[in-house]
Design brief:
By secondary structure, the protein is of the alpha+beta class. The chain contains three helices and seven strands, in the order αββαβββββα. Strands 2-1-4-5-6-7-3 form a seven-stranded antiparallel β-sheet, covered by helices on one side.
Length: 129
């Protein structure tokens, strides 16, 4: 019994290890944004042009935050979602969910990261915290 518990603990530790994610810059070429309002479930969609401040902001944040991702199999309610050709980035209050190459990863974020990521993406100020 003790051995089984040790094996379970070891498996949990291995699964909880953080992972570095490398997304090639070409993936960012075509970005779409979908914003879902929590209370009304209203959705707003628009495309982010490649040479905009908002586009550069997302690309910079992802490239500066390659580490600290954990594999996740849970489902998350969409909030502010940025989609590219091969990835989806769901920005929640305290968590970012990245779907990339058939896998899903999560990374905890601070309020300053949330504000950084959403300030330029969310046109409706009532969506910001």
């Amino acid at each position: 019994m003790k051995r089984q518990i040790n094996v379970l603990i070891l498996c949990s530790l291995i699964a909880a290890c953080s992972k570095d994610i490398e997304i090639p810059p070409g993936v960012y070429q075509n970005l779409n944004v979908e914003i879902t309002t929590e209370n009304t479930n209203e959705k707003k969609k628009y495309t982010l042009e490649a040479n905009t401040t908002e586009h550069a902001l997302i690309e910079k944040w992802i490239s500066n935050n390659k580490g600290g991702w954990s594999v996740s199999h849970a489902s998350y309610v969409p909030s502010v979602v940025v989609s590219g050709d091969d990835f989806h980035l769901n920005i929640l209050d305290t968590l970012v969910v990245l779907a990339y190459q058939g896998n899903q990863y999560t990374r905890a974020i601070h309020e300053r990261d949330y504000k950084y990521l959403t300030k330029a993406l969310v046109a409706n100020k009532s969506l910001q915290r």
